[in-house]
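ligand=guanosine-5'-triphosphate
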Amino acid sequence: MAQLEDLENGNYHFSFKLAVLGDVGVGKSTLLTHHVQDDEVVDMSAEVERGYCADFLIKSYEKDGRKHVVQWWDIPGVERGDMSMVTRLCAGAAGGVLVFDRDSPSSFEALGAWLAAAKQGAVGGRPPQAHGAWALVANVIGIEAGESEGVSPDVARDFARQNGMEYFEMTGPSMEPFHQACFDVLSKVVSNIPEPPEPSLMLRQGIAVGGLLAADGRVREALYKPPPSDGM
Ligand SMILES: Nc1nc2c(ncn2[C@@H]2O[C@H](COP(=O)(O)OP(=O)(O)OP(=O)(O)O)[C@@H](O)[C@H]2O)c(=O)[nH]1
Ligand SMILES: [Mg+2]
């Protein structure tokens, strides 16, 4: 439970929410669980209004001497029936990972709707991450295997490029492409953190400041500075 305790006790520099989205059965929960399980899994259910439910898992990352605690929200594919709920489930997220099944063209065609709904709820940093930092993962599950030729990697890569995302392909049992997608999103979010971290900007980016950061003298100074004027 160390990861959850870290979150509860503010034992981090920064903490933020990321989402994993995509159609039913494309492997989101499986991939996310493996990603988080690398050290320790904390699987919890967050009850959301009207009985909807999304699991979230917590994972800590070290980057450039700072500790980031991420709440990964595992958005159920059935929520595609109510995209306004997807927007609400993604509220305050700093970005996330979209997943589709290469053997299921319909799971690829749905990505635009998933991304639009997620971006509406997400918060962000500087453009092009103004609506969060996102990455695309092609999984191979075989939901519709045999019914079509599947989704061409070139078409998927084009979609990713048009939407400012990196593209990652699961090719075998290795989890590496999914890890890379998560790290890509994480490093984009982290690269948007202002230096020194100015509280009102951080709030707008959905990033919470933890106790480890507050112990930093330069940061304490920034915390007590008045927020920058936005010209109004
Ligand atoms: N063949 C194959 N099956 C997989 C793989 N990953 C997951 N599965 C299976 O595919 C099914 C769906 O996986 P989940 O991870 O539950 O899919 P999901 O995207 O979380 O689905 P929802 O939560 O319903 O939206 C499960 O039965 C998994 O065991 C994979 O890499 N290859
Ligand atoms: Mg799932």
